[in-house]
User: Which sequence fits this backbone?
């Protein structure tokens, strides 16, 4: 059974950090690009970071560049999103998604075939 499961969300104060995990099962993650999306209340879902399947190259949206770091551990079939210097505007449900042999050239949702169920991140004092 193919599955992506996010974990690591929670409540954190502004300026704090969280690390999200995206654990894959039922398929070999090394052949897939991993992207992170988020959806804030009353906003559309947006892609914020991606790591390619080939050379591990990364991409970040301007809103998270310099604060978030995406990574992957193919041996553990898991992707990660390290989030530092969190702001209230980062409050959202965070989703991971995968694209077979993806090169992280876009965040069009139709290009990502497997999705996790999402994990809530709330940044508040």
Assistant:
């Amino acid at each position: 059974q193919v599955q992506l499961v996010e974990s690591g969300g929670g409540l954190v104060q502004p300026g704090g950090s969280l690390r999200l995990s995206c654990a894959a099962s039922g398929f070999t993650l090394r052949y897939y690009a991993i992207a992170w999306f988020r959806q804030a209340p009353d906003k559309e879902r947006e892609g914020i970071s991606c790591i390619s399947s080939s050379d591990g190259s990364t991409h970040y949206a301007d809103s998270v560049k310099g604060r978030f770091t995406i990574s992957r551990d193919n041996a553990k079939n898991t992707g990660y999103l390290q989030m530092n210097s969190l702001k209230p505007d980062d409050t959202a449900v965070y989703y991971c998604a995968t694209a077979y042999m993806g090169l992280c050239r876009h965040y069009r949702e139709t290009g990502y075939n497997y999705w996790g169920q999402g994990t809530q991140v709330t940044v508040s004092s």
About this structure: The chain has no helices and eleven strands. The mean pLDDT is 96. Residues 52 and 61 are 15 Å apart (CA to CA). The longest strand covers residues 92-100.
